[in-house]
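Worked example 4.2. Below are the chains of a multi-component assembly; read each line carefully before continuing.
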Amino acid sequence: MSKPLSLALAFIMGSTALSPVLAEDVVNVAIIGEPDTLDPMVSTKDIVSIVTQHIVETLYTFDENWAVAPLLAKDMPTISADGKVYDIPLRTGITFQDGSSLDSADVVASLERWLKVASRGKTVADKVQSVEANGPDAIRITMSEPYAPLLSLLAFSNSAAAIYPEEIVKDAGDTLPKVVGTGPYEVAEHVPDQYLQLVKFDGFVPREDPASGWAGKRGQVPGEIRFVPVPDPNTRVEGLLSGQFDFADGLPAESYDRIAASDVAEPLLLQPFGWPVWAINHKDGLLTDLKIRQALQAALPFDDMLFAAFGDDKFFKTDGAMYPEGWAYYTDAGTELYNQNDPAKAKALLEEAGYDGTPLRILTSRQYEFHYKMAEVAKQALEAAGFTVQMDVVDWATLGQRRNDPALWDIYITHSPFLPEPALTDMWFPTSRIGWNDPVEVELGKQFTTETDPAKRKEIFAKMQAENYKDVGFIKVGNFNALEGQAKALKGVEPSPWPFFWNASKE
Amino acid sequence: MKLYILKRLVGMVVVVFLVLTIAFVIVRLAPGDPAALMLGPDATPADAAELRARLGLDRPIPVQYLTFIVNALQGDLGQSLFFNRPVLSVLAERVEPTAFLALFSLAISVVIALPLGIFVAYRRGSFLDQSAVSVAMLAASVPSFWTGLVLQRYLATDLGWFPASGYGGPDATFLDRMGYLMLPSIVLGIVNSALILRFTRASMLDVLGEDYIRTARSKGMTEGRVVLRHAMKNAAIPIVTVVGLTFALLVSGAVVTERVFNIPGMGNLVVGAVLRRDYPVIQGTLVVVATLYILINLAVDLLYLVIDKRVRY
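Applying the procedure described above to all two chains together yields the following structure tokens:
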């Protein structure tokens, strides 16, 4: 058939014959955009983690209870009595996707790069005295001081301590010539903004322990995983409901009922997903004054803000604890200062502070509509309490730039998933962008990162949370849930901020 | 005529140079840091500064401008910050979906609007005429994203007649990919047919009242021959103009429709580039689109020579 004729036929017949017929063995995943890179070491974006965790692996990972578990490491490390030396045994018989075998030289080279180029690696670099091979199948990390979050940092898929072949990573700097990992899938084809096709890596050796969260056996169940960047949330919903996608990430809350009523798909509520946070400028401006910070905290109506932002209590919880109930670090210490919604108290504190009506600059974006909506409600409450509020609504790129200059904002709004280890949230520490340098908190932070006993760490964290409320370091607005969706035929996928598909199957 | 074309091409060089300059200035006037965006939310200001330096974004603006212009004159529109590839190669990948989307949309518009426009002009004042004009007004007034969302929901999701979005996976053939363009083409075809219909109708109405049409009828010619041969030929110039302009607009990126249907064309690319602050891609797309726009308009002007022998350049 001639091309013009077939073209014409395609047009006349409609696409019934062309509608995507999905092979049982292929899992199609709609993601919120194109990953910036396939090297998770140099990015802190969740979208990069979601995709690359199928390709590359780390020494450790998290199990279903968010406990650190071995992945490329054979076992948990042996830690010296002073908490400074970590001896990590490596699994043997592991090959990279380029055919080379994993040994300690690869791990040492990768971790050295991680300490140099990864945002999270850099946070610990000054505490790492050395990373050395300890024979071909083990490494030793020596710290200058005990640092309890080290294993969590090594396990996290975001700004990840990914393990690459030494030859690739040795002189790579920020840009890897090629991303080669030991993960269950490798890249077959990547057409930016269209799809990333991952196929089974034949040389993959799974762990033998049972699957638990990201840990244990990675089943390599689907023959192929296709990640399709779909930036428009509504288009992701339509793609899911039409059967084009087996899984769709980051769906709008309004689509919940429609997905629930569908014959082909079902909603997955990730409960809780994370917490909206008001980052407070401690380096410059109005909020360097404690009384004004306390007035801000007293005035904010967190329940109203959450309702305005998410519209349905299926999607949020008014909760001041930094970690949700049931999590290891859950505590209600200090939360009596959460959701006060007390304009009179706020007014009194402002008077005490001698507030002169200088505008409180709230930097926010409509890229995440819930940020903007909660700011709008807060603005009314803050004005009622006597604040003059200036809303600086910009796009996300501009916010990302302006927040680096403390002269330009008093508050910026962001959010974070609940991270397994508090130390992964940099706002607790004085080196972060917000510059919270409260001496009590600095001391607690130090104790928290050097203490290795989990029970004692929980106690210290409770004090940190209470201090955050007392000194108003940063403001947690509440808990919110995220909506994902999957085809009814898809099994073996758990809702997660970083969903993975190596154990997914279609019925 | 050769002199005319030469003059137009020289004019085009000036316009493209202006576009190059304006594109460079506009993207840098917009705040936002590509480095911070690329590194993600937890990257430190120091990390972002380091990346900015590596990307050459810390150099003085005049130096960046000069480098951009000198490279552009040599056909090098720079390296995409996001894709880490030459801008021209990134753009080349986006030509196929955008070009075919524009062609199909235009074909649908013309197939709907031309015969209908001629017919309702001929039956001026009839119920069909009034209905067609009203529907055309409605189609032109409704935003294309709304039409897109509605058709996507009912024709793709509920009825399954079309793929909901995208441009096909790794195993899609050329024909499959064209299938993905059908629904967006219908959306754009409907929206753009309104303008062409109104121009066709107005132009035909002007001509149908002329003396030579009355003369043709008095000579006993059939109505079909009068309308299609005498009236249509003389009404063609404004119609060709509006069809040409419509095509130029479609080629320059059906931004919203490409976004709604997730078509990886030039419109989608430029939206993504703006959000990512990928300066070279924004600049490159603007230059390519401006050039295409000028060339299509030149082609339309030259087409007048074929349609009307009285036209001389």
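Take a moment to check your reading of the output against the notes. Residues 87-122 of chain B form the longest helix (36 residues). The radius of gyration of chain B is 24 Å.
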